[in-house]
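User: C-alpha cells in, sequence out, please.
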C-alpha cells in the first residue's frame, strides 16, 4: 500500500473543507464518506454566505466537484469500519466495509453526529416543519404558531427565549416534565403557554405538523417548531484511538484540530459532540487541515534539507 499523507473521514462541510485545504497544499489524501450526513433530511441550509437556502445535497455536490480540480485528492463513497495503528512507524491502516485497506500518516475525523429523539413520531416532521436550530430555520417559521418541545427545563427555557424573537405565538411542551415555579414565571411573563402533559401523537401531513395530541385527549394546533434532541457520535473512532474525551462528550484538542493522540485530528461536530452550523464546521475543517499540513511540513523539512 502506498502511504497517504492524510485520510479524511466524513464528507460534510468540515471534511470537504479539510480536503480542499489539503489538496491545495499538494498533499496526497483520501476522503471517505458514506452519505449519512444528518442535514440530509433538511430541504434548505441557511447561514452560509453565498449559499443561503441551498439544498444540503447540492452543497455537498458542489464541494465534491471542486475537489476534482486537485489530482492529489481521492474520493471514496464507502464506510470506514476499522482503524488500526501501526506502532512501528506511527501510521494507520484504515479498512472499509468492502475490505479495501489504506495506509496513512495522519487522520482527520469529521464524521459528525446524529440525533436521538425522546418524543415519538418526530422524525416524520423533522427537516420540514420541526427543526433543532433556530439560526438555520427560524426565519422561515417567523410569526407562525410554533411549539418548543424539550424534556429538560434548562433546554426548554433557553430555546423558548430564543424562539420568542421569531414568533410570539409560542407553546412550550415538556412531555411530562413539570417546570419549576421560577421557570413557569419566566415564560408566563411573556405570555408563553406551557403544556406539561405527555405527548401521545404528532398529527400532520407530508411532514408538515398540524396538531399535537396529549395523553389526556387534548390537542393543540401548531404549524411547526423546534425540538431539542440528544446527540451522539455514529462511531467510536475517537475513543478507540485513545483520544481524551471531556465529561460533556467533547474531544480534547489544542483548539486547532489536534487531539491528544499524535497524528489524529478532529473537526466539526465530531469534535464538540454537539450541533454546529455549516459555516463553522467548514472553518473547523480548514483549521484542522492547516494543522495537518503544518505538522507534515515540520516533520519532513529536516529530512529534505
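Assistant: Sequence out:
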Amino acid at each position: 500500500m502506498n502511504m497517504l499523507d492524510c485520510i479524511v473521514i466524513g464528507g460534510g462541510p468540515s471534511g470537504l473543507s479539510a480536503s480542499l485545504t489539503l489538496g491545495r497544499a499538494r498533499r496526497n489524501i483520501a476522503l471517505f464518506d458514506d452519505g449519512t450526513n444528518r442535514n440530509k433530511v433538511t430541504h434548505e441550509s441557511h447561514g452560509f454566505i453565498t449559499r443561503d437556502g441551498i439544498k444540503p445535497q447540492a452543497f455537498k455536490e458542489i464541494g465534491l466537484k471542486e475537489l476534482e480540480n486537485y489530482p492529489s485528492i481521492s474520493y471514496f463513497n464507502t464506510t470506514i469500519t476499522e482503524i488500526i495503528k501501526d506502532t512501528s512507524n506511527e501510521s494507520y491502516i484504515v479498512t472499509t466495509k468492502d475490505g479495501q485497506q489504506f495506509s496513512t500518516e495522519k487522520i482527520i475525523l469529521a464524521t459528525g453526529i446524529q440525533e436521538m429523539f425522546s418524543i415519538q413520531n418526530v422524525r416524520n416532521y423533522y427537516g420540514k416543519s420541526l427543526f433543532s436550530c433556530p439560526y438555520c430555520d427560524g426565519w422561515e417559521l417567523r410569526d407562525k404558531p410554533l411549539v418548543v418541545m424539550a424534556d429538560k427545563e434548562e433546554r426548554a427555557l433557553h430555546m423558548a427565549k430564543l424562539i420568542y424573537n421569531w414568533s410570539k405565538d409560542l407553546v412550550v411542551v415538556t412531555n411530562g416534565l413539570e417546570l419549576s415555579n421560577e421557570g413557569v414565571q419566566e415564560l408566563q411573563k411573556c405570555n408563553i403557554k406551557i403544556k406539561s402533559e405527555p405527548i401521545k401523537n404528532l398529527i400532520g401531513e407530508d411532514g408538515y405538523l398540524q396538531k399535537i395530541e396529549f395523553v389526556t385527549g387534548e390537542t393543540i394546533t401548531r404549524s411547526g417548531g423546534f425540538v431539542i434532541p440528544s446527540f451522539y457520535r455514529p462511531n467510536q473512532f475517537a475513543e478507540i484511538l485513545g483520544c481524551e474525551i471531556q465529561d460533556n462528550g467533547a474531544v480534547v484538542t489544542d483548539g486547532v484540530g489536534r487531539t491528544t493522540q499524535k497524528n489524529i485530528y478532529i473537526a466539526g461536530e465530531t469534535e464538540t459532540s454537539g450541533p454546529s452550523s455549516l459555516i463553522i464546521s467548514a472553518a473547523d475543517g480548514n483549521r484542522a487541515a492547516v494543522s495537518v499540513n503544518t505538522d507534515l511540513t515540520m516533520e519532513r523539512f529536516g529530512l529534505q534539507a
